[in-house]
Amino acid sequence: MLDRPRTRPCETLRRPARCRGFTLVELAMVLGIIGLVALSALVAYKVVVAQHHSAKALADVTAVRAAVLKWAGGGPLAYPATTGGSANSRTLQQWDSLAPHLPAHLKKLADGDSDLHLDGANPWSGRYAILPPTPSDPMHWELRIDEIPCALMEELEHQLSKTSYDKSSAGILATACSSGTASLTVPYEE
Question: Under a CB-based contact definition with an 8 Å cutoff, are residues 128 and 108 in contact?
């Protein structure tokens, strides 16, 4: 008896619909659609992260202001270089003294800090720096936010200007963007 080679169902001359695979064009279209969906999700994610960072910086600025005021006990801040000052003024020389009044994420960084620069504290891993009052203007102090991405600078400046506590006409100062980042200085007049 001659053995005829067995043919598999999909190897016949006529290929039934259940045996057909995907063509390269179909696979390319599916991969293109998946790529577009992934790209749009990535863009949306970046927008949400940028909004979160701006909101966090705004909350930090508000918390630092409240901590400084609580630390000062309602009195004016004294310029660090002075030895005297008024009887009810306090000299702010380091973040460590503000630590009890700061939120947890800033408190952890402020503990043991020996100056007025809190490195790596803002949402962009930059620093917050307190610029204390000067002898000529003892009621005016500033908080500087460093290393803000230039793309977010205008939005953050707008957000901060809506909630600014400065009673003077100085306003928020922005530095020019260089190497992709800039700084904002938020003035306070107590």
Answer: no
Q: Which of 132, 140, 117 is nearest to 187 (CA)?
A: 140
Minimal CA–CA distance to 64: which of 97, 42, 40? 97
What's the chain's length in residues?
A: 190
For 148-165, how does the pLDDT look when each residue is reduced to its tens digit (9 = 90+)? Answer: 888 888 888 888 877 655
Q: Which two tokens stand for residue 163?
A: 């909630």
DSSP, collapsed to helix, strand or coil, labels residue 55 as helix
CA 117/CA 84 separation, integer angstroms: 24
User: How far apart are the C-alpha atoms of 96 and 76, rounded to whole Å?
Assistant: 19
Closest to 57 measured CA to CA, from 140, 135, 139, 160: 160
* Contact of 60 with 161, CB cutoff 8 Å: no
